[in-house]
Amino acid sequence: MSARLLAVVLGAALVSGCSELYRWPDRMGARSEPAPEGYYVVKPGDTVYSIAFRNQLDFRDLADWNDIGSDYLIRPGDLVRLSPPPGGSRGSAIRTTPLPAGSPAPPNPPRERLPPPEVTTNIAWQWPTSGAVAKPFGDGAKGIDIGGALGQPVLAAGSGKVVYSGAALKGYGELIIIKHDDVHLSAYGYNRRRLVGEGVTVAAGQPIAELGVGPEQKPVLHFEIRRRGKPVDPSGYLPRQ
Question: What is the 3-class SS of 122-138, one letter each residue?
């Protein structure tokens, strides 16, 4: 085994042993054709959370339908089911990365079944930035837009863990998603600059980004709260201004 190949193997082994990483690096030979209806092909930079967010699904359901373990590890090229398997049985994410010639197919490791979600009701929600609501929830809007000054602080609306930090979700620009408990997520879009990465634990009120420009070329923050994957009106959670 060459030194370069050994380094790649050891690097992959290190990643697979870390439960806080949700992604795998891109791999040669990953599926490139379109996904069948009702499925999604994992792309570099995707996480279970970002796929669930994009499709308005509970991340726990998505993991369960695809037999994804509690580490939420997915690989580019995986084919992920976006609805429950027939009969309510558990499915599995289809691995599409080809094996070297002559290699036997590895057995599917047993997956840890995810426990029922624990609902936390004491989230101390707060406004993610200062400014007036420029666009309310509803009429196709999955959150609210808050006007402000370019570059002003964007704050975590509650304590939690950053589960997505990137720009791969179309229509959100530079986006941050925070998991507050097993039921609630909050999302912060149109940022000029992201200040936190995935896996970071943040406190309520902690700066996580700088406010950027929205589709109408005006400084604005797009803010969403998701409950079990579904958008809810943030005004029902945030304190009155």
Answer: CCCCCCCCCCCEEECCE
Rounded CA-CA distance 129/211 in Å is 8
- Give dist(CA 234, CA 139) in Å, integer: 14
Which tens digit of pLDDT belongs to each residue from 15-67? 333 333 344 333 334 445 678 899 999 999 899 999 999 999 999 999 999 99
**How do residues 150-175 score in pLDDT, each as one tens digit?**
999 999 999 999 999 999 899 999 99
CA distance 143 to 204: 19
Q: Is the dihedral of CA 175, 179, 183, 184 positive or negative?
A: negative
- Rounded distance between C-alpha atoms, residue 213 and residue 149, angstroms: 9
- The CB-side HSE value for 149 (13 A sphere, CA atoms) comes to 3
Alpha-carbon distance values, 198 to 125, 166, 195, 208 (Å): 21, 9, 10, 11
